[in-house]
Design goal:
Blueprint: H1 3-13, H2 24-31, E1 34-37, H3 39-47, H4 49-57, H5 70-90, H6 100-114, H7 118-123, H8 127-152, E2 157-170, E3 180-194, E4 199-208, H9 216-221, H10 226-241, E5 246-256, H11 268-275
Parallel strand pairs: 1-3, 4-5
Antiparallel strand pairs: 2-3, 3-4
Length: about 280
């Protein structure tokens, strides 16, 4: 009576899953012949092919909810730094050459600008959301001060803020002939150091809402490609802008947008700046 059930249990207990790819024809129907991808799309594929398929192939996503969360605060932090950076650049200033008064005024102006419209309605909907803006101002004031301090200790100066890039690549595989990939992205900040009249050294900064360190093993595994691809794109962009220059890579960092707490002491400011060193 139970022999079939027991047999199925035994078979399934030793069953092994053999992963397989979808057919090239199916992939063409799902994704088309021009794939528009970002670095996070490639990293998603390297981490979990099924998760990539569900999100980018089937178009599945979590239902959006009306509200304001920590992730929204991270997005607004990026938008705020973009506004401040471009405004300072228009005034021929940067984080290190602007005065504390100018930086504070820029923070206020940028936050006022990015919180209009739907964001403003959500922010004013309750006290918790209003507190997020108080936190944003505190974090932004710390951030612009720290970025200025770091720039003042080196020879690099900001050259470009929020630089978009787009490169089209074609598959060499015969089965995927005719399929192209448009790799797109946006580099938060590109700094330059004029080593000589002929040579420029490039540094890129990618802003993060949480601490993150560059991991060579993750790069090799394909799950942390951002800095490497951004550096390659930054060099290509600068070579197009300055064809007479020898453009070389210098450094690539993550910068965590934060205002960390430390024990109160005479060295508090030093400790905070150490915690905010780019990684």
């Amino acid at each position: 009576m139970y022999s079939r059930t027991i047999g199925n249990i035994i078979v399934n207990a030793y069953r092994e899953y053999t992963p397989s790819s979808i057919l090239a024809k199916t992939a063409r129907e799902l994704y088309g012949t021009l794939l528009s991808v970002s670095v996070s799309t490639l990293e998603s594929f390297a981490k979990c092919r099924f998760a990539h398929f569900a999100k980018y192939g089937l178009g599945l996503s979590e239902r959006e909810e009306y509200g304001f969360e920590n992730t929204d605060l991270g997005t607004m932090s990026h938008d705020c730094l973009e506004e401040i950076g471009k405004s300072l650049s228009a005034q021929k200033l940067d984080f290190s050459t602007a005065t504390a008064e100018i930086l504070k005024a820029e923070v206020e102006r940028a936050i006022d600008k990015i919180t209009v419209g739907n964001r403003e309605n959500i922010i004013n909907s309750d006290a918790k959301n209003k507190y997020y803006i108080t936190e944003l101002k505190r974090i932004m004031n710390r951030t612009v001060d720290t970025l200025g301090y770091q720039l003042s200790k080196g020879k690099f100066t900001p050259a470009v803020y929020e630089q978009p890039f787009s490169r089209i690549y074609e598959f060499e595989d015969e089965e995927l002939k005719g399929v192209k990939v448009n790799l797109k992205g946006r580099i938060d900040r590109i700094d330059l150091c004029e080593e000589s009249e002929e040579r420029e050294i490039v540094k890129i900064i990618d802003y993060k809402s949480s601490s993150r360190k560059f991991d060579p093993d993750a790069l090799e595994a394909g799950v942390s490609l951002q800095l490497a691809i951004y550096m390659r794109s930054a060099i290509d962009t600068l070579k197009e802008m300055h064809p007479d220059k020898d453009v070389r890579p210098g450094a690539m960092f993550y910068y965590a947008i934060d205002d960390p707490f430390v024990a109160d002491s005479a060295d508090s400011e030093k400790l905070i700046r150490e915690k905010l060193i780019p990684t």
